Every structure is written in structure tokens, then in C-alpha cells.
Amino acid sequence: MWVNPEEVLLASALWMTERANPYFVLQKRKGHGAGGGGLAGLLVGTLDVVLDSSARVAPYRILYQTPDSLAYWTIAHGSSRREVTEHWEWLEHHLLQTLSIFDNENDITTFVKGKIQGIIAEYNKNHDIKEDDDTDKFKESIAKFRKLFSMPDEEKLVNCYSCTYWKGRVPRQGWLYLSINHLCFYSYLLGKEAKLVVRWADVTQLEKCATLLLPDMVRVCTRCSEHVFSVFLNVSETFKLMEQLANIAMRQLLDNKTFEQDRSLPRLKKKSPKKVSALKRDLDARAKSERYRALFRLPKDEKLDGHTDCTLWTPFNKTHILGRMFVSTNYICFTSKEETVCSLIIPLREVTIVEKADSSNVLPSPLSISTKNRMTFLFANLKDRDFLVQRISDFLQQTSSKIHLEFTGSLNSSYDEQGSLLSYTPHRSSLGSDESERQFNLNDNSVPTATQALMTMYRRRSPEEFNPKLAKEFLKEQAWKNHFAEFGQGVCMYRTEKTKDLVLHGIPENMRGELWLLFSGAINEVATHPGYYQDLVEKSMGKYNLATEEIERDLHRSLPEHPAFQNEMGIAALRRVLTAYAFRNPNIGYCQAMNIVTSVLLLYAKEEEAFWLLVALCERMLPDYYNTRVVGALVDQGVFEELARVHVPQLYDCMQDLGVISTISLSWFLTLFLSVMPFESAVVVVDCFFYEGIKVIFQLALSVLNANVHQLLSCKDDGEAMTVLGRYLDSVTNKDSPLPPIPHLHSLLADDGERHPEVDILKLVHGSYEKFGSIRADVIEQMRFKQRLKVIQTIEDTTKRNVVRTIVTETAFSIDELEELYSLFKAEHLTSCYWGSTSSPTDRHDPSLPYLDQYRMDLEQFKGLFGVLFPWAGGVHSDSLALRFFRLLDQNADALINFREFIAGLGVLCHGDLTEKLKLLYKMHLLPELHHEQDEPDSAFEATQYFFEDITPETSHGRQQCPQQSACDDGFVRVTFRNEKGGQVKRVQTPDYRTYLRLWNQETRSTSENMKDLPKLSQGQFIELCKTLYNMFSEDPNEQELYHATATVTSLLLEMGEVGKLFCSTCSKEDGDERPPLHGTKQQGLQPEPFHASAGQPRDEPRDEPPDAAETSTVSAPMEDIKLEDSSPKDNGTSSAMLISDDETKDDTSVSSYSVLSAGSHELDDKLQCEDIMEDTVLVRSSEPLPHSASVDKDWAITFEQFLASVLTEHALVRYFEKPVDIAACIANAKNVRKVGEAHVSVSDYEISLSG
């Protein structure tokens, strides 16, 4: 390709000149090509890899030079000789003569540079190539990556790093390429090549470790191998990027979230000192935004714009605190260098004034920010204050416009506090109306509604009652009010160590809902989404799905001991919140334990506030906890085990042996101890959780184990251990709670053992901070990543084992073979997710479905595996055969097949006998054509009856009425076929597909299926069958022998079909033409023998028929087999021709089936042509179809028995279909081809693998 002219100092160093003229030189890199260049070539090749030289990708180049100058400029380079030669010839034809006109060398140089730059600009314009942020060096790396590993353009390279790969005990210096979906390594050292490709989705362990010799190593483990990399220039950056990419892959396995690059990132300046790829910048920005959101509990769509060091004036202690300011699209946040000293969140919606104050020596570059609640925050020591103020001003303008839009948009849906809890009852609509048009009556008061938190309505105490607990509660409230007066109230409050101390002493009952909203960040979403919850409730109420059924089942199990949920008011509020969230987030929907947590939220918060608290809990604070497989809880269970091993090592081995940790952690974590502790104690845990996050739960769980070490060590089984822990948790009390004691249903004290002494929850919480408060949030996130890999891969392995266990008894494949095939099946789905597919990944992968249906593939994916696994694949027509095969396997006609269906088809080809294989081939051609909606409607009817109703049809064109016809019609009229765009599989909409699936399974599992049950093959279908046979043999070593055998069988079947017409009814009245009698029936005295395969149905209906046919119509229904050997072309060369014509007798072994079948069978006298098949003959049917009347005879049909018997007469065909299949070799070949997706054929003559 042409490149911008770049000066070269040493033109001949490491390059060999192949062509030259006065102005241009064509060179080849030493060590490239067949010669290799000996030792010098090996050294050059090694240097190119180690130093990441562009010559590895482009070993040819063209230099420009002037005759009297030693300066050279690179103007073109190429990956192949052909590519660079084209450029060379263009230069000779278009530039050489022009350059000879110039007198001045400088003019020549200017002209050549301008010409080359013009060519590049024109090329970019014609190919719509846009300028991007990637440097030329990184573009070279992308080219190397795609060339070395045969990656398509859709695979995006993120970055590459120089490192050493340990192959056994031998280090290989090379380059590590990290792309979105793959980890790749390449090394070339003195003629020895090392290449590695690992899919991120296959990684089971990724860790950074160190040894005495190698202080910085990265270990990457998959299910079957382990890879070690070392000698990184920046191991931390590399490992963080690897973690990110592995996380993206796990997220894709979990919920099909594919990676989409953020195009909104600002472009880098031209003079930026460090330019990385746009994709790497995107991933870095995502990582920073994620940490920013987690630190300040911000909404999940908030993006960090930037941060800067500064100081913050804190009025409560009159000091300037050193810290860092973060600015994003909707928030300004601050955190001190010391984590616990001070943090601050200022929503831009609250900001009124941003102004630059006067600088001084004491207060350089100050910035003042005022808010609506009359608080002023003073920042100083800002490095680039003017730029910062401009960014904040821009975001403020965007925020004000958003607020204006939200205000105007919510005028009609706004509501006051008294109406925040409404009962939404769907208005009855007509059955024909669309769901989206249903109107809801918001004023229906059939269900009592609450207007505030439920706890305030069900507080059971007298106004005059006063006791020490109430006194303590009053003191708590006063302490918080004093705190608000000193540190501010609401979202802009200064959060300090004193705030944490107040939380650890318990939040007052009256303030719990307000502070939960504040500390969880849900207060921001309440403020920015007015009317959202009401709209969601309105849309969700009255609609039913699996989630709503589960919600209804669990409503009365949610804190049934609390009076608030012993009546319809609390139950209705709980129903609305859970249903609204299920419709907001269908990926989670509803999970058990959500009802318990939500019921507690409703006790302390209004209904809409409880909804947003649930959102914060499920989507930010406990990620993936409440999906269908509770992955988040399993991940934290693994983290808890690791923490227990570190902090309570004396107990760890015992707990592992008993298996208690996995049992207790799910119930503790999923409900935040609400289901295992008395209510008044558990809410204190929730207080701390909303302030500090998941670390509080880990700390508390470790404290519970530590407090029971001796009892647990003496336990003999898990039941005894659970009793010990249950008794302890039931004894946890909150002595300061003003609430009356609520009976706890979790008590495990069914035995008459002694009750555990009471444990104060506040002391337990304080003790957990003292003993285990060193656990850091960032360490937990690191441990979560490690456990997430393990958990998700374990789930995938469990799915594979269950699928294999389910179908191993249905197939001849071994368990190992099934597991390998399942891995290929799943890998094909992942590849299509990476590089695009015609169907949605969500349709093909749904973890909520049964194991067999979790992974499914569409037609395009099936074609990929068909080409590398199925023995019938081959030639240019493989896709059309794959389409027929796919439609046959797609039992429920949803354009997707599961693994069982896939194995059923492959099993027949690999382990089936001759009859089963031919039966499968025959069935593939019974299905109606996709592209001819009206062709052969009766054959389509007949075939569909067979596949979906198991009813034997009468004839191939199906116009006669059989005694069962009325019953058949009733089931079939609801089966419809539609053409899909782009040749997609036709979908069959059936009233009850389960019935059809059951019938189909019975048919496929039947070992003694009656051949009579198979429908007849019409002439059009027979033509397609012959085409398929020819295409299947196109690349076989015995191709010519198989072609001759196929021609013989084709001729024989054609004659059988002609004779069979004598026993079929005539065409319906719609066919006006009267057919002439066949030649050679009466004249030759040949008595037509009855065919068993005509599948005797009575032929006694009155009809109009030709005279000759009338004599044959009286033949009895049960017919005997015709003697096939009498008409075999091999045994009697003339008998087959006698059925066709008196005077046309030719060698039937030379008949081209495409010549025969291109004419209608009733016009064979004039149109049958016999051709000798030469070795170089290519049999191709004309693409222009003949008129229907001339190309297809509706009365012509053959049966499966005739097809089977005809094939058995040809030993070449018998050998082909009985040839054993080495499935292990097919799997090994598929693994090699599918390692990185589709095999890419390179047009370059550059050999990638230079070692033997």
C-alpha cells in the first residue's frame, strides 16, 4: 500500500534490492521468502519480532531516490510480492517519463511526495476511511495481529506488550496481543515460531504472582492448560487490562452483554506525549468511571470526566483538607487523601453559583461553589482552574436543560406526598385492544393505600409511654440533628468519621428511611426520575409472566410476623414495588429473598423510595446477587471462604470439611442477615451496609464464626454446626430498639437445648470493626474478580455435564466426544457474538432456560460447524445442503437448534447404518422449498403431515381424499409457512408444538420405522435430491465412479417413477391437457408389475383417466414388489430404454441425470438426452427454470423403498454411505479451524509459520 513519504537513512541495511531504476528501488527484507538468507536471515527475522519491526508485516518496500543524492524516502510497502509489484509497475508506467522532464532534484522530490500523498488522499476518500486517534505504529500492530492470527476486522486489538512466554522451561521473547475477545502471543526466535491464541471466555484463572527468579509473572489458566508470561515493562498496566477483558468475557457469558466501544470520548491532541489506542483509552475511562461510581454510590450511567488534586475548606474543624476533586456530567465529588477524614458529593442540580475567588498566598486558585440549601464549598490549589470552571459551566448548562425538560415532562404525572402510595388497578379493556393502549384507573380505592412508610402506621406504642429505650432513641435523634447542623443535611452533607460513628451506634427509627436513601445514593435517582415509578407501575400492573407468578407466591411469606404485612395494604405495596422492578429489569425479574429485603425497605421508606432503594441494592451494591443463578452471591461466598482462610485459619479446614460456609453464606448474604437475625437487630446491619457496603457483611460473618470457634470445632456434621450458628444468631438482640419484640420465624431451637446468652448487636458490630476492619473495598473487588472467573466457569461446566448426561443415552457418541462437541457448539455461539450474526445473542443464549436450551445456534452458525464436522459437507454447494439439514433438525421450526438436535443429526451420519443415512437424506428433500411458495403445494402438505402429524399421505400430489383426510385437515390448517429475508429458515407456527415434538421424538427413536410411512418424493424433490448427490461427491477421491453410479440410479428411479404413474390417479380437473400414453406399454407387451413402495391405498374413486391408464387402475391395492433386477441398467442395457421409447436405446450408465430431469417426464420421448460423462465433465443444472408444465410432472413420484433399493444396486454408493467416520479426527480438525473463528485464506505469499 502507498504510505506517506518517510526518509530512510540506511537504505541497504537488512534489505536486499530486487529491482531498481534511476528514481525508484524495490527491496525485500532479508530472511523473508524461500531462500531465508541463512543465519543472517534468521537473525533479522528474530530482531523484527523482538523489536516489533513493521517489516514483519510488510517485507517488501519501494524507495524513492534522486540520482545524485544519498537520501531515500519510503513511498510504498507490501505484504506480498504481487502487491508491491503492482505499485512498481504503476510507477514505471505513470511517473518515470514525467520525472525525466524535471531539471531540479528538489522539484522531482516535491512532485513525487505530492503525487503519493494525493494517491493516499484519493484512496481514503473513495473508501470512506476516516482519521482516527490510533498512531501509525499501532495500526502496524493491528495489521500484524490480524495477519499472524487470521483475525477478522471485527476483532479489535486493544494493546500489545513485549514479554516472555514460558513454553515449558524455555523462555520465548515475543509480543502479547490483547484484543477484546482473545489473548494472543507470537514469538519468532532463530527460525522457531511460537504462537498462542486463548479465548477470554475460556480463562478460568488469571493471577499476578512472583517467584525468586521472576518477580513479576502473570499466570493464565484455562480448563486444559496453563500459560505463564513474565518480563513485562509495566506488569500492573498489563494485568489490569487483562482483568478488564476477562471481566467483559464473563459478563458476556452471564447475560450476553457484548462490548460496544464508546465513540463519545474526546480526541487526543496532536502533541499528546503518550498516544494509546482509542480502545485502550475507552477501557481506561470505563475502569475509572466504575471506581468513581462505586466510591460515591452514583447512578450506573454516570461517566467521570476528570479529576484534579486540590484542598477543601472544612468549616466544622476550620482546616484545609488535602484531597482530590472529581468532576462528571452530573456531580462534583471530593475525597480526602485519608479515606475516612472527609468526603463530599455535590449534585450539579443543587448548584446555584460557581465563582473564582481572588488568589492569595494562603489560598491559591480558589473556587467557590454554592448550593440551593445555602451551603458554600471552598476549593483551592487547583492547577488548571480556568479549564475546570469551563467544564463545570458546560455541565451546568446541560443539567439545567435536563431539569427543564424533566419538569415540563412531569407536570401531568407529578404527585404530592399524600398520593405517593396509590393503588393501581388496570382498567378493563376489550379483548381486541393492544396491551400498550390499556388505561389504568389510578383512583380506584378498592385496596387501602399507605401514604407514608409502613412502620409509622404500625408503631405499637402509647403516646404517654416513656421508658429508657425511648430516652435513648430521643438522644440518638438529637445527636443526628446536631450533626446535620454542623456538617450539613441532605446529599451535600460532609461525610466524616463522626458520621460513621453515628451509623455504628444505630440510626433512629424516624430517620432510617431518609439516611438509607442518602447513603445508598438512591436519593439521586429519586430526584432525577420524577414520575418514573408511577409510569412503571401503570405499565406493569395487570400483566402476568413467570416473575409475577413467583411474586404472588412469595407475597405472604415476606415478614409475615410483622403487622404491616398481615393486611392487604402492605401486601399491595410490596406487590407493586416487586412487579415494577421485574418490568424495569427483566434480566433479574424476581428472585427469592428480594421479597424479604423489599418488605423491610417498605417499612422505613415510602413506596417510590423503597423502589429506588431496591434498584440501588440489586444493580449497584449487590451486583448479580438476584439473577437466575445468584452468581453474585456465589462469588461473595468464594470471597468469604478466602477471607475465612486468612482471618480465622484455625476454623477454615473444619468448615470446609463440614461444608458449612457454602450453606450459611447464601442465606446470610442474600437477605443481609434479615432472615437469620431478629428483626430489630438485623436492621442495624442494614444501616451499616448502606453506609459501608458489602465489607460490613463480610466483617460481621467473620465475627459470628470467630465467636463460635470452639463450638464449631467440636461439631461432627453440618447439621450440628448449623444449629450452633442458628442459636447464636437468634440470640442477637438490640437492647436500644424502641420497637416491641417481633417473633422470629428462623429459630432453629427445635430441640430442648439451652438458649445461647444474649448478644448485643451494637457490640457485635463494633467488635467486627475492631477485629476485621482492615478489610478494604478494593481488596474485596480484586477477590471478587478471581472468584467470578471460577464461579461462572463452574456454572458453564455444570451446564455442559448436565447436557451431556441428558443425551448420552440417546446417541452412540462417548461422553468425551459429546463434551468436545458441546465445546465446539458453544464456541460457535461465542464466535458469532464476537463477529456478528443474523440472530440476537439473547435468542441463542438464555441461562434461564433448561440446560439443553441454554445454548442454541442459528443457520449461519450451523453452516460453520457443518463444514468442519459433517462428512457430507464439501464443495461449493455445502451451504445449500446445510440449509436442508438445518431445517430437518429444527423440530419446532423456531430457526434455532439445540445441542440435542445437533447431535441427533451428526449421530446419524457418524454412527447410523446405510438405511438410516439414506432415510435422512430422503427426508431432507421432503421438506417444502423455501423459495417456491406455490410449487408442489400438495407435496409440502404431505411432507408436513408426516413430520408434524405422523399420518401417511395418499399420493405425492395429495389431491385424492383419503378416509382420514378430514381428521388430517383439522390439525394442519394452523400450520403456516413464511418466507424469511435472506434465505432464512421458514418458521412453522403450530398450535401445540409440544405434541409435534413428542411425535417427532417417537419417530426418531424408533428403530423399526415402517418405510411405508415415508411420503413419496415428487419429481421436483427428486431433482433436488440428485443435485445434492452430485454436490456431495464433488471432492471425493472416487468422484467419477460415484458420478456414474449416481447416473445409473437416477435413470433407474426415473423409470420407476414413470411406471408408477400407471398406478396413480390422474391429475385433477385443473390440468386441462390430456396426457398421451407412454410408449412401450402395450406395444412391447410389458405387463407392469405392481410396486410395493406405491404404498397401497385404495384407488376406487371415480376419475377421468386416459385409456391406457384405465386398464391399470383396477389393480388391487396390496401390490407386490417389482423385480428391480429386470430393469437394472447394469444387467439389461435395453430393458430400461424400452420403458421410454421403442427406438431410443442407449447405455443408461452414461445418462446425465441433469439432462434427464430438466425435461418433464411426460415429454421424455423428445427431451431425454444421453451424454457420456468425461473425466472433466461438470454437471450443472440450468439456473433458468423451465415452465412448470414442462419441468415438473405432478403424477411422477418415487418411494423411499425404491430409492433405497436402487442405491443398493451400486457398490460405489454403498461403499460411500457405509464408509466409517472418524469423529475424533473431525473434532481435532474443527478445533484447529475454529480456534479463532472462520478460517481466513490469505492472498499473501508471506509465510507466517517459518519453522517446521
TrEMBL record:
Residues 1070-1154 are annotated as: Disordered. Residues 506-693 form the Rab-GAP TBC domain. Keywords: GTPase activation, Repeat. GO terms for molecular function: calcium ion binding; GTPase activator activity. It holds the Pfam family GRAM. Residues 877-912 form the EF-hand domain. Gene3D superfamilies: EF-hand, Pleckstrin-homology domain (PH domain)/Phosphotyrosine-binding domain (PTB), putative rabgap domain of human tbc1 domain family member 14 like domains, Ypt/Rab-GAP domain of gyp1p, domain 1, Ypt/Rab-GAP domain of gyp1p, domain 3. One of its GO terms (biological process) is system process. Residues 1120-1129 have a biased composition (Basic and acidic residues). May act as a GTPase-activating protein for Rab family protein(s). This is TBC1 domain family member 9. The lineage of its organism: Eukaryota, Metazoa, Chordata, Craniata, Vertebrata.
